[in-house]
Predict the 3D structure of the following.
Amino acid sequence: MLAAQTTRLTSQRLFSRLGLTGSGARAMSTTVRPATEPLVIAPKALASLMEKQDGSSKLRILDATWFMPNTNPPRSPLREFTVGPRLPKAQFWDVDKVATTGESVRNLPHMMPSAATFARAASEHGIEPETHVVVYDTHGVFSAPRTAFTFKAFGHSNVSVLNGGLPAWINHGLPIEEGEPSSAAKTDYPEPVLQDGIIRSFDEMVANAKMGARGQTVFDARSKGRFDGSDSEPRPGLSSGHIPHSLSLPFPTLLKTETGKDGKTYTVLKDQIELWRTLGDTVGGTEALDKLRQASSGGELAATNTCGSGMTAAAIWLALQEIGVQSSIYDESWMGWASRESEGVPIDKNV
């Protein structure tokens, strides 16, 4: 395993070699600036920032909660946000509406928005390119990384994920809001440019799979049973299994479970040492993982992440970012890949 993984190609070099363009044809956004805020922020650190706000401060807090479609009983993230509790002055970011929809994306949910859609949503939320955006969800760490990834993909560098989300905030005894949420004054966010290669296309993933062990490392955030093909998919009509030569990395393995004072549990991201250990075990050792980090230090996107629908793949992206590995997301993920099974798309199983 180690030998195979350490010889994998990384980043855009692989896809240019394959003669593919797709998302890689786009230029790097000229609005990209070095981040001055941490990608993962603790509740007390955010509370301190909020206390220091004044009229010139640029801080926006977004609730980007999303629930699996088969949640029983069904839950509405917008309704729960509106009722509360929520963070003070938070606004709701609807990941299924701030997205590309329709036949161009095979009617898949929460696909990466166009630059125009993203800019419009950012403007409606009172966000400017210099704004520090903090994203949270009500699970702890689950859907918030996807929205953070979206901001980063469009060159918005100062974005943070609240570690532990709303449950951790409440568990620390920090102030909350309930009832009608406040609104922000609309801004004029300039239309950005999507980062080169940050979203991988189906054709790129097919070509990468054909490269076998020489292809780019691909992580799959779904459960091991779904990856192996022993468990069924939660979405009807899709076979389980995985993209050939991808690696199983269930996103919960990157998280720790905490118990709040109310007895309820929530998730937080593991620390860097624990993440290094978990990710190293997945790729076949710390030497292989260090090769990905070294490639990333040169500006390369060294791996690609996938999941069921492109949501929890961002949890892997977040974890990799924390240890210095830059990565992209196959936005269609398993829904896009497995829906083409009748067209002859290969599906590997470990059963």
